[in-house]
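dumping this here so i dont lose it
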């Protein structure tokens, strides 16, 4: 399954309401729950928070890719959050993160999990693309940008 196949309006939150890392994680997991993509949001949140506690997934250029593996999902799940105001996510470059790609997969799909992370990194290499995505006014615009990338 290609990453682009997972991107739908129902898993995109524009703008994120959260102002700190724990609340961003909770809001993205809640987005998946509200979209009907996961049932046990607490187990998913725990997996992502445990992974995040080991080392921040805040990359450079305003991008964060929180992720985790848990038996609470049976297939790869993705949520996208956009925070134009930026959130301190302990990123590598120290800058606030504005684009959040939450990835969750079952332990049996470690390869697919890594492929999804690599696809996201390839997608966000373009600064103009990231700037356009941060400026998206709603989920539909964000989805259109990603599908057109």
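and the seq i came up w/
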């Amino acid at each position: 399954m290609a990453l682009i196949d997972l991107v739908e309006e129902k898993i995109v939150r524009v703008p994120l309401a959260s102002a700190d890392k724990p609340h961003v994680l909770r809001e993205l997991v809640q987005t998946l729950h509200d979209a009907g993509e996961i049932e046990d949001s607490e187990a998913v949140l725990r997996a992502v928070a445990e992974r995040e506690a080991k080392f921040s997934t805040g990359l450079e250029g305003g991008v964060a890719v929180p992720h985790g593996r848990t038996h609470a999902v049976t297939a790869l799940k993705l949520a996208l959050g956009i925070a134009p105001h930026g959130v301190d996510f302990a990123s590598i470059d120290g800058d606030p993160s504005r684009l959040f790609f939450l990835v969750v997969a079952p332990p049996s799909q470690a390869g697919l999990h890594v492929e999804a992370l690599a696809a996201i990194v390839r997608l966000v290499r373009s600064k103009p693309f990231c700037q356009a995505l941060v400026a998206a006014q709603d989920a539909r615009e964000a989805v259109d940008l990603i599908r057109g990338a």
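The chain has six helices and five strands.
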